[in-house]
Structure formats: C-alpha cells, structure tokens
Amino acid sequence: MEPSPAPGELGAMLQAAGDFASYPGLHSDDTVKQFLERCPLPKLLGALQSEADAPGMVETVTECLDKVFSSRYGASLLPSYGAFIQAGLLTDSKGIRKLACKAVLNLLDKAEDSAAAVETVVQHNLYPVLINCLIDGDEEISAIILDAVKRLAEIPNGAEIIFPPDGQGSVQLDRVASQSSSLARIRILSLIAKLFTVSSYTATAIRDSNLLSIFEDEIKDRRDMLKTLSALEVLYELVEHPHSNIFLLKTNLLQLIIDVINDSSADSVIRSRATLISGRLLSSVDAFTVIDQSCVTNLLAAIDKILKMEESQNTDEIESALETLGLIGTTTQGAHFLLTSSNVARHVVETSFDRQGRGRQLAALHAFGSICGVDRQEDQMKLDGQAEEYLKRLVYTTAANSSKLTPSALLLSILQQDPDIRVAGYRVISGLVVREWCLREVCLNSEIIRLVTDPTMETTKLGMEARYNCCVAINKSLSSSQLLHEKSLSELIGKLNDAVRRGPYLSERKRVEARPVVVPAERF
C-alpha cells in the first residue's frame, strides 16, 4: 500500500490536485514533473487507498492522476506501479477502475520501453483482469479496454499474451463468450474484430482459435433481433478490413448471411445489413477464388428476390441490395459473374434510369458505374466478350423499353437531373465510354458533350471533379478510337480538349476585378 498523506497536508494536496486537473488541455512533461515534486505520486495513490473521507477527494485525485498518466513522463512511471493498476482494475469504485483502465492504455501507448510495458502486463496478470472488466464494466470502461487490448496486440510480444503460441492462455475468449451474457458476447465480438485488423498474425490466431464461430453462433440464433443486429454491425466493421475476406469466406458465415437475407420473418434492417456484409465479403479480387460459386448464385438469387419486391416494400432494403451489387461488381470477376451467371444486373441498369425513387436510382447509378469498371484499373475496366455483349444488350434493351429509345438519350436524361444524380451519371459515363458502342452514342449526342464540357455546370468540388473526370474519360477513349478521324466530330473533339486543358475548377466566366470609384465632391 502506498503511504497516505498526513492529515495536515491532505487539504493542500487536494487543492493542488484540483488545480492541476482543472487545466483544460494536456500538460507538458515539464509541468507534470514540477507537479509531482510538490505532490509525489506515491502520496496521490495513497490518498485513493486511505480511509480519509474528504468531500470529492476520490474524484479530484483520479482526475489529477489521469492528467499525469496521459503525459509521456507520467506513462513512463507506470511500470513501477503495476500493483496499483491491478488493484484499481479489481476495485468496486467506478472512478478508480476507469483510471486504472486508462492507465493500462497509456502504459502501452506512451511508454518509451514497450518491453517493460508488456512485462508489467505479464508480471501483474493484467490481461485476464482487463477481460473481466470488459465483460462486467459499463460502456465507457469497455471502450477503453477494447483500445488497450488492441494496443497490446500491436506491441512486439504483446499479441502472444492474448494468443500464446501453445494455445494454452489463461483466457480462452470462446469459453468466456459461452459463459457470458448477450451484451458481454457482443463486446467480445467487438474485441475479436479489433484484434483481427491488427496483423495477419492476430487474424490467423483468431481463425485457429475458432473465434469466428462466435459470430456464426450469434447470427444463427435470430430470436433476439437486437442481439443479431449488434453481431451483424460488428461483422460489418470487420469485413471492411482488406484481409478479412479470405479468412471469413472459408467459414460458414456467407451461407448464414444468405439465410438471414432469405428469412422473411427477419426485420428489414437486419436483412439490409446482412446484404451489405455479403457485398463487402465478395468485393475483393481473391473472393471468387475462395468461395464456391453455387454460394454466390444463391446470394444473387436472394438479392434478386429483394429487388422484385413491390414498391410498397422497404426502400432501404432495396437500396442496400443495389449497393451490394455494386460492391460485388467492383472486381472483374464479380462484374463478370453478375452479367453472365444471373439476371440480377438488369435491376441495376433499369433502376438507374427510373425516376420513381430517387434513393434507389442513386444507389443503382453508383452500382452501375462500379460494374462498368470505373473503380477498377484502366486495363481491367472491360470484361470478356460474353460479359461485354450482355452489358451492351442490357443497355440497349433498357433504352428500347423506355420513352428515350436510345442509350444516348437515357444518359442525357441523367445529366438533366439534380446534382447528386448528375455526379453518379458522370461516373457511369466514365465507365461506359471505354466501350466503342457507348463512346459513339455519347459523341453523337451534342447535348451530352455540351453539358460535360460546361465549366459552369457544377458548383460543388465533388461535382466539378466528377464532370472533369468524365471529360477526361471521353477524351482518352476518343484518342484511341476510329471516331477521332471523323470530320463531323472535329468541333466536339476541340471542346473536349479545351475542357481537359481547363481542369476541373476553372470557369469560362470573366472575373470582374474590383476598381476604385472616384466620386466628385459636388455630389455630396
């Protein structure tokens, strides 16, 4: 136990601690050193352990110590106070426990000697106590611990505390989860998601420890909507990570996600989130080399069912389904699969030009741009012959079945709508014009060229850049096309060259310079 301050000095120390804690920002290391010379750290810690009952003492001292440990100098002292941290994590006082949790985070995050920090965690057996606090603590404490354990995993040798090479660690997260409440299991899932993103070592350890099965168990049991949705939200964050797909697609998770999408009794919010997760899972280049194609076919059938819903059905669910198709279509393999192995891509093209629902149209246009290759490398934008033929037929069929009759008229109609729709439209045109048939459609419509080369058309940075990128895409495709030599297009080519040279932000409007005005005195 640390020495408690003498009764006579307690008041002065609390006054100094209160002044130190009230400073709005972080203290410099020099300021912290000067403060600790007046109020030694052992006595501050002793005040928390004493039986003195001064009003507001615990709050004042914990706030003060938080400021001390948040500095690099204060964090460097923490390896000598591992016993205090352990006691703080075990105490019933929320304020002291929170201070101890933040002390662990500062120890790992700011201590100059990472080996000493890890040794402190091991010597005082802090990791199992942190997991207990994660499970039993309130939301604020749990959030601090999630960051602290992630930081531990990022430090050399720190990950081995969480995932020992022999697999015989003092804390088995799957066992803890099986014995915990639903809220605690969601927190463990959040921890797994954070650890997964640290390195390939931690991701592999999570897979080898069978911790991904906790996600499967939570999603499989759909009796509690909030619990299922919480698990899906954590999984949604996890699948954002680049190497998550390869690990997750080797589990049963995608099939479980498809089951959720097909479950008509599930809430539409749950189905929407599940749909987007499936899109993220299949948005990587390697996804189609790992997953069984029959599983993808089943997923597209489930999405197709959503998109065939009547207009009275949930709009968010339909928008999520369209966004998912765009995610799948970002890769060459995904776009090819959408166009050749299913009819689901027709929903994207048809909805892109349907003004009946603005949100759906916007989602469809973004998805259409992705399928056309606007997010892919230039040499991967075009697909193989079969997929390209289907894409062309899909666009011409959609045009023929509309009042516009031609693809060029359809594309023009997009550029005549509101700014958000236009931005998505520029994106679609940028992807489509690498195809000769679409380039011809665009170049033979002088109104499209007038709009995309008009420097006053857009007023936002996003809009200006999207319009300019569209000009560049058309111009680039023309430079390698036979259309470049058609005399009838010489004026159009000149407009495009001027627009590209001008850049995205410059306007043709003449700037009116400010001029001094001389007013005769007799006017007054």
Automatic annotation (TrEMBL):
Give the source's domain of life in one word.
Eukaryota
**Which residues are listed as membrane-spanning?**
none
Record's GO cellular component, any one?
cytosol
Q: Pfam families per the record?
A: Proteasom_PSMB
Name its GO BP terms in alphabetical order: proteasome assembly
SUPFAM superfamilies with a match to the protein in the record: ARM repeat
State what protein this is by name.
Answer: ARM repeat superfamily protein
